[in-house]
Each structure stands twice: as C-alpha cells, then as structure tokens.
Amino acid sequence: MQKPLNVLNQAINKQVMVELKGNREYRGVLDGYDPHMNLVLKNAEELIKGEVVRKLVVTIVRGDNVIFISP
Amino acid sequence: MQKPLNVLNQAINKQVMVELKGNREYRGVLDGYDPHMNLVLKNAEELIKGEVVRKLVVTIVRGDNVIFISP
Amino acid sequence: MQKPLNVLNQAINKQVMVELKGNREYRGVLDGYDPHMNLVLKNAEELIKGEVVRKLVVTIVRGDNVIFISP
Amino acid sequence: MQKPLNVLNQAINKQVMVELKGNREYRGVLDGYDPHMNLVLKNAEELIKGEVVRKLVVTIVRGDNVIFISP
Amino acid sequence: MQKPLNVLNQAINKQVMVELKGNREYRGVLDGYDPHMNLVLKNAEELIKGEVVRKLVVTIVRGDNVIFISP
Amino acid sequence: MQKPLNVLNQAINKQVMVELKGNREYRGVLDGYDPHMNLVLKNAEELIKGEVVRKLVVTIVRGDNVIFISP
Amino acid sequence: MQKPLNVLNQAINKQVMVELKGNREYRGVLDGYDPHMNLVLKNAEELIKGEVVRKLVVTIVRGDNVIFISP
Question: Shortest CA distance to E8 belongs to which of F43, F32, A34?
Fold first, then answer.
C-alpha cells in the first residue's frame, strides 16, 4: 500500500502527465507539490484535446483542478 | 456495518472500478488511498463512455472527482 | 427530532435509495457510512434515468454527490 | 433577531418546503436537521418543475444542495 | 470601514434584496443571519427574472448561493 | 511584496471594480471586507456585460463569487 | 524539490501569466500572494481568448479560480 502523496514524492524529477478539468493536460517534470496537490512542473507542455498549445518553463498548477497525475 | 474507508482498505491490491464526474472511469489495481479518497491505481485503464482511451502504469486519482469506487 | 446521521444509522442493513447529482440513482443495502455521508452499499443497482445500467456487489459512494438518501 | 438554525428548530414536526439546486423541491414534515442543514423529512413529496414525481416515507436531504427552506 | 457581517446586523428588521445564483432574487425583511450568511427572511417574495413567483411568510436562505445582499 | 488583504485594506474608501463569476461586475466605494473577501460596497453600480443594470446604495458581495478586485 | 508557494515567492516582482477558469488570462508583475493563492498583480492585462480586454494598474485575483501560474 502506498499513500497518494508518497507516490507523488517518488515522481519528483520525473516526467508526469497531469489531467485537469476542462480537457486540459500538462506534461512536464515534477519539481514540487504540497498536500493540496498543487504542483510545480518544469519544461511543461499544455495540451488541449491532445494538441500542444503552450510551452511553459515553470508552472504552478493548482491542485483543485486535478483529475489525475500519472508518473 | 463497515466504514467506507475500511472497505477501501480491504480492496488494496484488488481490481477496482472508479467512476469520476464527467463520464470518466478508471479500472485498475488499488495500490493506496488517503482519507480524502485520493487513490493510487496500478495498471489502470481510463475509459470514456465505456471505451478504453488510455493505459496508465501508475496513476494518482484525486478524490474530489470520485462518484463511486467499486471493488 | 432525529439527526440525519442517526436516521442513516437506523437504515444499516436495509434497502436504501440514493439519488446523486447528474441523474444517477443507486439502490442497495446500506452497509456503512461516515460523517461525510460517504456510503457503502451492497448488492447495488445503478440507475440512470430510471433504467438499471449496472449491478455492483459492493460500492463506496462519495457523499459529495448525494442529493438524498431514502431508507 | 433569529438564527437560521433556531428557525429550523422551531419547524420540527411542521410541514416545510425545501428548494434544492436543479429545480428539485421537497415538501414534507421536518423530522430533524444538523448544522450542515442536512435534513430529515417524513412523508415527503418530491416535485420537479412543480409536478409530484415521487413520495418518500423518510428521506435524508443533504444540506449542500439546499437553496431555501420554508416552514 | 465596516465588516460585512456588521452591515448585515444593521439590516435586521429592514427590507433587504438578496440575489442568489441561478437568477433568483428574494426581497423581504431580514430576521436573522449567521456567519455563513445563511439568512432568515420574513414576508419574502421570490423573483425569477424580475417576476414574483412565490410569497413566503418565513424562509431560511442558505448562504452558499448568495451573490449579494442589499439593505 | 504586498498581501492581497493589505491591498484590499488600502482600497478602503476608494472606488473599486469587482468582477464576479457569471459576467457580473460591481463598481463602487469599498466600505469594508473580511478574510473571505466578502465586501461592503457603497454607491455601487451593477453591470452585466458592461451595461449598468442596477444601482445599490449599500451592498454586501459574497467573496465566493469574486474573480478579481481592482482598486 | 520546490514547494508551490516557494516558487510563487521567487516570482515576486517578476512578470507572471495567470490562467483562470472561464478562459481568462492575466499577465502582470506579481506583487504579492497568500496561502490561498490569492494574488496581487501590478500593471496587469486581462486577456479573454488571447485578446487584451482590459488593463489594470493593480488587481487582486482570487486564488479559487486559478488554473495555473507561470513565472
């Protein structure tokens, strides 16, 4: 058994896929998180309906909108 | 009588079906959870309207969006 | 006068009807609950617009989505 | 001046009308409540757009969805 | 400077207009409130899109849905 | 660096623009606030899609619906 | 590993892009924040669907609506 936040912790410095409400997806390197699942991503791509729409060197994603995070 | 989190605990290492808001469904092996019903799934499939759209080796599902979890 | 959670407690092991947001309805035997109104149902049927769409041996329904519970 | 929960307390054993989000209305005898405005109604009728769609001997209505309660 | 709840307190026994989400409006005499902005209104009128649709001798309005309150 | 509530405090007695969810906008003199960003406005105008639809001598705006406040 | 609020702190006095729910975007200099991710922006531009619709000398953005913040 693994706690969700532990799995998140093991994903630090790894590539993750983050699905948000509203068909938004972010792919980038996980640089940090907090207990609300707010995330810091580095070298992230924002995808809307599967298309890369933006590149972001650093981005803070608010945990509120997260559906799932996949290391 | 069984508390919801106890039932979740008994489902650890078992196949579960997780229904989320927005017609999303995940099927996979429950690897962990926390009191907010955030979940860790292994070898998960994401289904939208009954169709497998993605396979995820490990995924952290935010409890916020859960409608039901069925072991 | 009866507190809502007491009425829920008296419904343990009885057939209940649970109406959720989004026109979902569950009917089954109440096996457990917690103060957030998360529920455990046994031998549950999921109905969408009055039609049985799924049968679930055990299911944990998140309290967040509950509109009403009727023993 | 009267606190909302006091007014609710005085309505115990009286007929109340409860308006919920999503055009749902319940009319029945108030049998209980808690500080979240979760309610217990007896001999309740569920109305959708003014039409009685269901009768419920006992029902627990989650406070979350309440718009107003009128004794 | 006046705190919002103080302004509400000064409106006790006065006519107020309460705008809720979903184009609902209530006008009545403020008889009480609590820190969640749950309100008790007396001799209230419910208006939908500016039309009086209901009269309510006493009503408890849940603070959650309030957009603004105007004494 | 300035905390959001400090900036709000400096705007007391000044004209502010408040944008709410649902395309509502209020312009008026900030007379008070609390930590939930509930606001008291004096001599406020309510605008929907840029048109003044109502004038309000005093109004309590619930912080929940605020998108931004601009002194 | 960096906590989300630390990354926000390092962005003080720098240009940031803030994406909100409802296709709203703000670009401006970050002047402050609090643990709810309420933000103070200076010399901000509001963009709707990529078009600048408003300029705001100072604005307090409520954290509730934030999707991401990118320094």
Answer: F32
